[in-house]
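In response to the reviewer comment on reproducibility (Comment 2.3), we provide here a single inverse folding case reported in full, input and output, so that an independent group could reproduce the run without further information from us. The structure tokens appear first.
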């Protein structure tokens, strides 16, 4: 099914006007659409669920949506692997795995993305021991530029497999994914507020001694919340549905969203609102199945920039961000998120080759962000920061290439599989350069 019209992402900071927005209902239809675009000399981009804040999905040519390709295809209980169509949303995948007694080892905070989109942009979680979702991939199936279907794995087209796991959509359209899972598990999570300096001093030891750690600093305050989660055999222990709704939806979304909206109208009030929110953060504890601990309901729309940096530089860099906010008198209405990830071997993974800390800065949708984000990016440039591919940044290929040891390998594989640039767009031209 094809239609015309404007497309907008979830954060409402990116829009584009494709010549056609097409939603194939089958693999055959998808291949025919890609083949016809190739014959017509047109570019193709996948928009997925629109949860990227960068313009990675935007195009003025043909846009494809593959959410209809969302089936669970096969499950190998002995090997603990699952094969699914790549348009499946993460929250659906998590539920389907749970029904079968399985789980992914690590997840991010948001579960509304398609699996293909989460892989292609490098979506990651909160563990210093477990890599991004892409690290769980055993094999991929892609529709290439001429409409052919290719399967890749460590033993079949291995170079394509290495690069396409976090491929920014430039190798083809991911249609099928086989993932390594594990038996379903429960997590005991405890979230508590800490004083800024104490939190930074203890962050390394807390991260090292817990399975998963997710931290937030509230700008304009001295409050850092640290949520530590560990595997447990304890029975599920959560608050009543009414209390959960009150804390997570009413307070965490609607009331916080109302305060953010008020702050957009009265920017001078943002620091005092932020301090009020931070100073009312309390202790939150629960035991639940893993994906319900990892993932949160996010109803307030926001815009985000996230950078990966060497883990040993996290504390000094966060202090510089605090100094930037204070010196430039910026009104920041969302917390700064802090996470860790181990080194991996995926060429364009943000954690490629180095143990990594992630710092993510946010503002509510509709709030001017460029001064804040450009200031943060300038700080990140000094610590060899690597931007999250699905989040706002202003980088170019010239600046990014020296930050990735396998950059040239990625480009060589890209040129081999998409020599005409059928899957390119303005974003990939800017951040990867042109190989066609």
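Designed residues, in position order:
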């Amino acid at each position: 099914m094809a239609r015309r019209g404007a497309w907008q992402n979830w954060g409402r900071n990116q829009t584009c006007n494709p010549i056609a927005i097409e939603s194939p209902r089958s693999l055959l239809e998808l291949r025919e659409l890609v083949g016809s675009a190739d014959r017509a000399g047109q570019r193709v981009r996948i928009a997925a669920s629109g949860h990227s804040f960068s313009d990675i999905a935007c195009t003025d040519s043909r846009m494809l949506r593959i959410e209809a390709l969302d089936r669970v295809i096969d499950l190998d209980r002995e090997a603990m692997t699952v094969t699914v169509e790549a348009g499946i949303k993460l929250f659906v995948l998590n539920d389907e795995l749970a029904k079968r007694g399985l789980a992914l080892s690590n997840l991010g905070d948001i579960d509304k993305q398609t699996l293909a989109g989460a892989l292609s942009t490098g979506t990651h979680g909160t563990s210093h021991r477990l890599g991004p979702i892409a690290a769980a991939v055993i094999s991929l199936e892609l529709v290439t530029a001429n409409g052919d279907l290719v399967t890749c794995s460590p033993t079949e087209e291995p170079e394509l497999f290495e690069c396409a796991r976090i491929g920014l959509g430039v190798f083809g359209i991911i249609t099928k994914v086989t993932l390594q899972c594990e038996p379903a598990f429960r997590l005991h999570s405890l979230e508590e507020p800490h004083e800024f300096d104490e939190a930074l001093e203890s962050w390394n030891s807390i991260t090292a001694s817990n399975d998963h750690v997710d931290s937030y600093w509230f700008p304009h305050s001295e409050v850092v919340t640290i949520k530590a989660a560990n595997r447990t055999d304890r029975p599920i222990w959560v608050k009543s549905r009414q209390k959960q709704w009150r804390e997570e939806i009413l307070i965490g979304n609607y009331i916080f969203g109302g305060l953010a909206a008020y702050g957009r109208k009265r920017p001078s009030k943002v620091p005092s609102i932020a301090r009020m929110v931070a100073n009312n953060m309390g202790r939150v504890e629960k035991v639940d199945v893993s994906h319900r601990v990892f993932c949160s309901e996010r109803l307030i729309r926001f815009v985000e920039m996230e950078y990966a940096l060497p883990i040993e530089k996290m504390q000094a860099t966060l202090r510089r961000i605090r100094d930037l906010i204070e010196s430039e008198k910026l009104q920041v209405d969302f917390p700064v998120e802090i996470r860790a990830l181990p080194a991996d071997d995926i060429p364009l993974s943000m954690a490629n080759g180095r143990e990594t800390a992630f710092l993510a800065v946010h503002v509510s949708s509709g709030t001017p962000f460029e001064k804040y984000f450009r200031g943060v990016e300038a700080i990140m440039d000094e610590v060899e920061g690597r931007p999250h591919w699905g989040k706002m940044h202003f980088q170019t290929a010239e600046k990014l290439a020296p930050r990735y040891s396998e950059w040239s390998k990625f480009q060589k594989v890209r040129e081999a599989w998409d020599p005409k640039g059928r899957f390119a767009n303005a974003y990939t031209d800017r951040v990867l350069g042109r190989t066609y």
